[in-house]
Amino acid sequence: MVIYEGGQAVTQARSLWRVELIRMKWHGALIGWEQLFRIKHITSGRYLGVMDNAVQLYHKDKADFDLTAFVMCQNKVEEKKAVALKDGHMDDCYTFFMALEEESKSARVIRKCSSVLNRFLNFFMSFCLDETNPSNLLLRGIDALQNEGNESADWERVDLNEVLKLMEDLIEYFSQPGDDQDFEHKQNRYRALRSRQDLFQEEGVLNMILDTIDKFSQMESLPDFAGLIGEDTHTMWEEISTYLYLLVAAMIKGNHYNCAQFAAAQRLDWLFGRLSNPQSAEGILDVLYCVLTESPEALNMINECHISSVISLLEKVGRDPKVLDVLSSLCEGNGMAVRSSQNLITTYLLPGKDLLLQTAMRDHVSSMMPNVLVGVVEASALFRRWYFEAEVEHIEKMTKEDPYLRIGWANSHGFRPFPGSGDRWGCNGVGDDFYSYGFDGRCVYFAGKGRVVASRLFEKGDVIGCSLDLNVPEIRFTVNGQDVGACYKDFNIDGYFFPVMSLSAKVSCRFIFGGDQGRLRFGPPPGFSATVEAVSGELQIFDCLSFGDIQKNVYCGPHTLFTSTEPFVPQPVDISGINLPHHIEDVHTKFAGNLHELWAMRKIELGWSYGEIRSEALRKHPCLTSFERLPATEMQYNINLALDTLKTIEALGYHLIIDQPPTRLRPVRLAQNFQQSNGYRPQPLDTHEIILPAELQPLIEALAKNTHNVWAKEKIKRGWTFGLSEFVDSTQKRSPHLVPYEEVDNRIKEANRESAAENLRALQLYGIFIEAPGHEHDELAEKEMRTRKDSCRTYRAEATYAVSSGKCYLGRKWHQGAEIYGKEWKDPSGSEMAFDNVICGDGLVPAMTLGSGQRGQGTFFLFC
């Protein structure tokens, strides 16, 4: 009989089969028609056979040709046309659509492991003859060893050396990837390791190893067990006993599902109970550490006996790091303190005062940053090559540790310089996580690991240069103008980067950003820009992460820099799907001509004059001529500009309608000095008598904003970026006006508004009027959408302050208005009840949530 299981082959190793050719095939890589082969079940090593209309698995010694040989035959379906392969062969063949190499290897290992362990376990059952009393199976094997000693024939068949080598190979097979491997190889190794762990668990090998551990314990409990098996054999026995636990730890490490199987009271009692044996304690501690860290639900089942057994082991073996790791994992789970375990550990350790846990104090480190964010955003005005310096003003050693000073760049996506626990926390300073790159004079730091690049740390007077090139990307450091010869390349450029320095007590360092924020001593390098060019508004220096003034009970929400900063990406009004009414087609050419006349008038007012060749220095322009004499490209540009303006009005929800002009057409009478050498004098329409209604003011503002966005998008397309100074060097095109319309200089806003209003008045002279839409602006909905994008931070009291009965008071005071503290808040019906039928549970604690930029002060009273 053949027993098979459904489901994917990657979750059940018993579902894996392998095709083996009976005869050698000397040409072609695939199995062809009439090719003889056998089908082997990988985990059992048996071959599939057919006899008397039944299928069965046969041992390899009994798998003869007649029983297990198969041949690939063509069926009776319609013959398909043969298609030539790339290499020219025309063979009809059978192909495999899935080849599970890793799973197949694991299945072979499972077969070998099961075979060795089963032979070893069969020793305990070798003397079982009483089928009516199966409980005597183990006792009979053990009794034989007691009666005959190591001269027993069954004991001689036990190959402990084979079991020992199997344990060593399996531990290596389940080993974690090394730190020297690159990221891609490490991830592939993790995936393969997880697949192996899952297959061994599904096939029951993990339970088989646990059964083996139980058998070992029963054997070791025999009187004078070492004398029964011999001194040399007993040494090997102890090694196997330790390896068994190490193997269990390797098979569950990093696998929550496998670890969760130990998160049961019976299994935990079983593990902690075996700590009494110091020889196997090393492996048991590894198993416990994996279970407690990968399956935190086990922490809820820890009792006083468990903790006392760990501490008693600490007293036996001394300050073993593995014991301390287990004690540490008992105190915390998922970033939350386990108070019950902490209190029990304290109770057992402190009263006697004869055991001291040696710890090391770390200096408190503060990380400072400016309100400067740079990054890579497609179609934005952000420059991509930046440089800043920092000067060490004072550095003094206060403790046994060296002063802490690192300078570098950090990323807004994950840099959280707070040495606490939990997701995305635990970074002490710049360079201690995956989101920052630091330099301390001797080493460059990333992900908490330093690489030596120089011979000394920073000293007083040193000037450190930090450059960031987001085009490569690349980060480099210099000391007093000398490159340290090391850099970081090809890092992730998601998020925004900002300068940062981390420093301990009695360390003083100053940012130098260039311009009015400090003269750069050794930079910037060619093609780079000083960081001051990225400052928008007033420069500020503040803590990277601050919870407020805790000493005064002042708490703050997240900083507004990371939530409110958005790069300027011009987004003009989309007019691609707008079709103008047919009656507008006759007007747009006249409108384009008036746009040209207005442009020429303003150009002449700025001192320009006609010239056949354009010259910025002499202020000569060949387009200062009549609309009809413009070059074809310039004329088409004005026509397109007129059409785009009309389409923009329609796209904004307004409608163009025809009506009688309010007055006749007449040009503006300009002075004689507007006359050009070619006889041209601008003649824009006189619109001073046209008064626009108030409902068109939003349209004027929208057109002015769109004009700025169109200009900015064209500038960015030509390679311009934002900068406070228009000229940095000959290779950089910078403009201080590449900012959102709300931040543009008021003079530019007024000019854009006046131009938009002039265009609307000119359209009325051509008989084109604008009808405002009927919808209303929903300010409440817009405010709600802005609130949803905002981030917040929640504070709560510890669980020791929880209340479950009585009456407690929590007040809130807004510093707006003249209301006294403690005013009752009531709903429209006059009730002061906010919530009813509140479920208390384990207790309620005071809590508050603060948004970006908000601050609050807490005041606590025993009685109100």
TrEMBL record:
Membrane topology: Multi-pass membrane protein
Species assigned in the record: Dictyocaulus viviparus
GO biological process: release of sequestered calcium ion into cytosol by sarcoplasmic reticulum; striated muscle contraction
Protein name per UniProt: RIH domain protein
InterPro entries in the cross-refs: B30.2/SPRY, B30.2/SPRY_sf, ConA-like_dom_sf, MIR_dom_sf, MIR_motif, RIH_dom, Ryan_recept, Ryanodine_IP3_receptor
Keywords: Calcium, Calcium channel, Calcium transport, Ion channel, Ion transport, Repeat, Sarcoplasmic reticulum, Transport
Domain B30.2/SPRY: start-end pairs: 297-518
Compartments (UniProt record): Sarcoplasmic reticulum membrane
Molecular function per GO: ryanodine-sensitive calcium-release channel activity
A GO cellular-component term linked to this record: Z disc
